[in-house]
Amino acid sequence: MAPKILIVTGDAAESLEVLYPYQRLREEGYDVHIAAPARKTLRFVVHDFEPGFDTYTEKPGYTWPADLAFSEVDPGDYVALVVPGGRAPEYLRNDAELRKLLKAFFDSDRPVAQICHGPLMTAAVGALAGRHVTAYPALELDMQSTGATFEDHEVVVDGTLVSSRAWPDHSAWMREFLKVLRTKAPVTT
C-alpha cells in the first residue's frame, strides 16, 4: 500500500499549486488525497503576471473534486502534507478543523510542503515561529510577524518543512520535498 499524502485546499486556490504536486507525487508512487472544507467540486484560479499590473491577475482556473472534508480526515493516515496557495489560505486559516489537521502534522514533525500564500494557514497554528521559510514575496512581513525568518529564494528547507514562493518555483519545490519524503516516508515497491 502506497504512503498517503494530503493536500489541503479550497475554492480560489491556485490551479497549478494544487495540480502540479498532486500529479508529481502520484507519479512518484504516493497516494494523494485532496481535502477541503466540504466534499464538493472545487473551483481553482489562475494567477499570472501581466505588464502594467502592480500585482498578479486572477482568472478562473480548473475545477477538481475534493476527496474529503477536513472533518473526515484522520491525520494519522497520512505521511505528509501539501499546503497550496492562491486566495484560499486567506479564509481557510479560520477553519477550526483545518487548524487541527495542520497542528497534527507539525506536532509529529511530518513533512510539509507549502507554497505562495499557503504559509498563511501554517502560521495560523503557530508552526512557523523560529523557522526559515519563503512565501509569495508580499507575505514577507506576515512571515516575520509569526516569528519566522523570511528568505526570498525559490525554495527554503527547514527540517521537514519545504516552502516556495509561487508556481514558477515548482521544480525546485518538489525536488526538495521529494528529498525529504524519500528520507522520512519513502515509497517501497
UniProtKB/TrEMBL annotation:
CDD domains: GATase1_PfpI_1. Residues 4-179 form the DJ-1/PfpI domain. One of its GO terms (biological process) is proteolysis. The keyword Protease applies. GO terms for molecular function: peptidase activity. Keywords: Hydrolase, Protease. InterPro entries: C56_PfpI-like, Class_I_gatase-like, DJ-1/PfpI. The keyword Nucleotide-binding does not apply. Belongs to the peptidase C56 family. This is Protease. It comes from Streptomyces gelaticus.
